[in-house]
């Protein structure tokens, strides 16, 4: 079969890619020049920086062109190219396209780009700019397949984990270049400095609001704007063992995408 195209290689998209590949589907990932994933240990987009990225036994490789990716891709060898605008889709018409950018808005995905188009999260309307939307908000509707309408709008407030919501997420205090001092998996106390932002004048410290496990932190040397998401702290001690594992939320979303892909392939997908 034709390779499935997935726009985006962050942690939620990676879970979907991993599930598809493990189910026998070849996948080509379209990424931007400088991905800003926080959960880098479970994000195939890291292949932009490191040429390859392994997540739970599956290794993704960066290709220099779509043609190269097309020649190398297989169900157990997902390929990534830098193509944020999806220019390869001007010449290549896939059977299935998944938008997993999670930008909370549509960055150019159209329903006519593939026979089946699926989008993760808010910013899309099923039945209009894509065929289906998958709910990504934690709660009872997580993973719900939407055939008409949109996902729950972005609230800007992270889901509750261990009694904490917005306190878990750390943002940049100012624009500049971020430098990390802690690693993913480290235990950090409330008020701990995890890094700093290089700027004109004195550097700005980046500190935690709660104690917990540093579940994710942005790429060293990343240029940030004020209030840019930099890191994520999980208050649960046991989460130290989970930093390199796909999350429960991501697996749920991935299962819904696989359901649609399988139904499409078998010719039983309801439109």
Order of helices and strands: EHEHEEHEEEEEEEEEEEEEH
For the record, give the distance between the C-alpha atoms at the N and C termini, rounded to a whole number.
21 Å
Going by helix content, strand content and strand pairing, the class is alpha/beta
Per DSSP, what share of the residues sits in E-state strands of 2 or more residues? 25-35%
Strand order of the largest sheet: 3-4-5-2-1-6-7-8-9
* Backbone shape: globular
Low-confidence stretches: none
Q: Estimate the mean pLDDT confidence.
A: 96
Strand runs, count = 17
**Count of alpha and pi helical runs:** 4
Helix content: 10-25%
Looking at the chains present, what oligomeric state does this protein adopt? Answer: single chain
Largest sheet, in brief, is: 9 strands, mixed
Q: Roughly how many Å is the radius of gyration?
A: 19 Å
Task: Explain how this protein is built.
- This protein has helices at 11-22, 47-50, 66-72, 248-266, and strands at residues 4-7, 27-31, 52-55, 58-62, 79-82, 96-99, 116-120, 132-134, 145-146, 169-171, 176-180, 187-188, 193-198, 204-207, 212-217, 223-224, 229-234.
- The mean pLDDT is 96.
- A hairpin with a 5-residue loop joins strand 13 and strand 14 (204-207).
- Helix 1 (11-22) crosses helix 4 (248-266).
- It is 15% helix and 26% strand.
- With 271 residues, the chain is α/β, with parallel strands linked by helices.
- It is globular.
- It starts with a strand and ends in a 5-residue tail after the last helix.
- InterPro entries: Se-dep_Mo_hydrolase_YqeB.
- This is EF2563 family selenium-dependent molybdenum hydroxylase system protein.
């Amino acid at each position: 079969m034709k390779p499935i195209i997935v726009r985006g290689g962050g942690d939620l998209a990676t879970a979907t890619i991993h599930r598809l590949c493990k189910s026998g589907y070849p996948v080509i990932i379209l990424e931007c020049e400088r991905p800003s994933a926080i959960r880098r240990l479970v994000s195939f987009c890291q292949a932009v920086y490191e040429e390859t990225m392994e997540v739970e036994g599956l290794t993704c490789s960066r290709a220099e062109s779509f043609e190269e990716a097309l020649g190398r891709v297989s169900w157990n060898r997902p390929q990534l190219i830098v193509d944020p605008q999806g220019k390869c889709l001007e010449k290549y018409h896939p059977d299935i396209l998944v938008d997993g950018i999670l930008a909370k808005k549509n960055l150019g995905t159209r329903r006519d780009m593939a026979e089946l188009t699926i989008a993760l999260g808010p910013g899309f309307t099923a039945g209009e700019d894509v065929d289906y939307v998958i709910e990504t908000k934690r709660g009872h509707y997580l993973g719900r397949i939407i055939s008409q309408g949109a996902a729950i709008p972005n609230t800007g407030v992270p889901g509750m984990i261990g009694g904490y919501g917005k306190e878990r997420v750390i943002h940049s205090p100012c624009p500049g270049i971020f430098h990390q001092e802690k690693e993913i998996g480290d235990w950090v106390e409330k008020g701990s400095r995890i890094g700093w932002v290089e700027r004109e004048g004195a550097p700005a410290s980046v500190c935690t609001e709660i104690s917990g496990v540093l579940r994710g932190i942005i790429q060293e040397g990343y240029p940030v704007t004020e209030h840019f998401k930099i890191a994520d702290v999980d208050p649960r001690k046991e989460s130290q063992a989970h930093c390199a594992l796909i999350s429960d939320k991501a697996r749920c979303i991935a299962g819904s995408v696989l359901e649609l892909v399988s139904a499409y392939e078998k010719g039983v997908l309801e439109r």
